[in-house]
Design brief:
By secondary structure, this protein is mainly alpha-helical. Helix content is about 75%, strand content about 0%. It contains 17 helices and no strands.
């Protein structure tokens, strides 16, 4: 149900657009009327004006920048003015504004790749990202609490153990589920990230059915987030979730499905690595090594050997190109190679006899 303040903003925007579309070239401009609208109604008007301007509407990045410029008063608003405009909006209006402000290339979606502590590192946040996150923390407190709980769950893994981490991230899931159901689907991506973490905590706690259910929920939510304009980070999130699902199926002995999930993830990461070698190349090498691990346990030892050799070549090429590589993952790949080679040696010895 739309709040009364959100409905007023929509009605005001509708009335302005009716006047705008009735105007002829001899009419005076409606700039004065637009300036008198509330920030939320003004945002809705600019959203619609840009939609009917096909050159802008056909370019998502340009459209986002144009809308951000208008929300930020032509790019000249101060931080306090921007906060004030957003604070005056209805909950639905604020969410719509944050959808715009976080859809720009300058922000980028952090998604699963945004890890802290001992998880794989990500590039430092930009000043624009920091500004928008700061405003969201102030004006979107339930979201901020949920994100804080996700971060808290990561720390709890090392201090309190997997089951406790799972209980914490479940609190975040409850908040984000409520926001998704009652406010906007904008929170769906964050909800998927929370389920991704829950899968890891449950899987390491020995709760295989719970882990499988969590990663299935994660993948379902990510698929619902996908649009023709989705950025590479969503594709990356899907590939990470598929890798988790592959490990679960492999652990249950369902190797055909495990290999299928892992192969799909690797293909996706290969495409991403072609777009951004430094960002996705190490992820591709890690996924290739995991493929070899699954193939070994599936009994496809020769294919596992070829795959681990490919993974190690990827790591070597990245290092030669100056791309930072986590040596911990290189050591894991080397240990996979040693196990695969030992299995091959044992098999060849049996054949020789």
């Amino acid at each position: 149900m739309v709040s009364a303040s959100a409905q007023r903003a929509r009605d005001d925007a509708d009335r302005f657009m009716e006047r705008f579309l009735e105007c002829t070239s001899e009419d005076v401009t409606l700039d004065g009327e637009l300036a008198n609208l509330s920030p939320e109604a003004r945002m809705l008007v600019w959203d619609r004006l840009i939609e009917i301007n096909h050159p802008i509407a056909s370019d998502p990045a340009r459209r986002s920048r144009e809308l951000v410029s208008q929300i930020m008063r032509g790019g000249k608003s101060t931080l306090s003015e921007l906060k004030g405009d957003l604070a005056s909006m209805s909950p639905e209006g604020r969410v719509h504004a944050f959808e715009i402000l976080t859809a720009t290339p300058e922000y980028g979606h952090k998604g699963i790749n945004w890890q802290s502590g001992r998880f794989p590192s990500s590039p430092p946040l930009t000043p624009y990202q920091l500004m928008i996150d700061h405003i969201r923390n102030v004006l979107d407190p339930e979201w901020a609490e949920a994100m804080s709980l996700v971060e808290k769950s990561k720390a709890a893994v090392y201090d309190l153990g997997w089951p406790h981490a799972a209980s914490i991230v479940r609190e975040a899931i409850a908040i984000l589920s409520s926001l998704t159901a009652n406010v906007s689907n904008f929170y769906m991506r964050d909800l998927a990230v929370a389920y991704f973490h829950l899968e890891a905590y449950l899987g390491n706690s020995g709760d295989t059915p719970g882990a499988q259910n969590s990663i299935s929920r994660c993948l379902d939510l990510l698929s619902r987030c996908a649009t023709p304009d989705s950025d590479a980070s969503l594709q990356y999130d899907v590939s990470r979730a598929l890798q988790s699902q592959a490990i679960i199926h492999a652990g249950a002995g369902n190797f055909p499905v495990a290999v299928q999930c892992q192969t799909t993830a690797v293909k996706s990461l290969d495409l991403l690595a072609n777009l951004d070698r430094s960002k996705y190349g190490p992820c591709l090498a890690e996924a290739a090594a995991q493929s070899a691990f699954i193939l070994l346990h599936a009994g496809e030892v020769e294919e596992a050997d070829a795959t681990i050799s490919h993974a190690l070549r990827l790591y070597e090429n990245l290092e030669n190109e100056g791309v930072p590589v986590d040596q911990q993952f290189v050591m894991i790949a080397l240990s996979h190679r040693d196990r695969i080679r030992a299995t091959l040696d044992a098999r060849n010895g049996m054949n020789w006899r």
